[in-house]
Amino acid sequence: MIYKGPHRRILLPLPLPNFRTAADIAQKALATVSPLCVAGAKIVDICAAGDKFIVGETSQLYKTDKQMVKGVGFPTSIAVNNVVGNYSPLADNVATLQSGDVVKIDLGVTIDGYVAMVAHTLVVDSAEVPPVVTATYTAAQVVARLLKAGASVRTHHIHSLSTPS
Q1: Is 30 a member of any domain?
Q2: Residues 83, 85, 90, CA angle at the centre, nearest 5°?
Q3: Neighbours of 18 (CB within 10 A)
Q4: What is the pTM of this model?
Q5: How many domains does the chain have?
């Protein structure tokens, strides 16, 4: 079946390799940025390193197609502790990471308009996982168990699944 609407390209076989390539680069960028999150590291430097990696990797792709948009699909952002997300500081920002900080990393890669995003949460220089991270993980597991076709989610279901028997 061929879709006749304005978004006909979504049915072409081309996007899947673009998504996969973008996702591979995003995963590599995340693996590059995560080890940089140590006590004393400047947040702006970590964000710049993530974006630089993405631009470097995507510049090697599709060199003959000058019109293709590729590179940073979502800027590398480092949200620390109570900052909800999408914090990508200006170049003159001097904020640094401290030991025990909960760091949320978000970044995205685009190839020809197809964006792959990744995110990861870690604790700076700590072998111990803070209770807030454990609670978040448990909540995500509870919600994942409730996701079934046709199922309705009610508050009492979540409470009964989240409390130990």
Answers
A1: yes
A2: 85
A3: 21
A4: 0.74
A5: 2
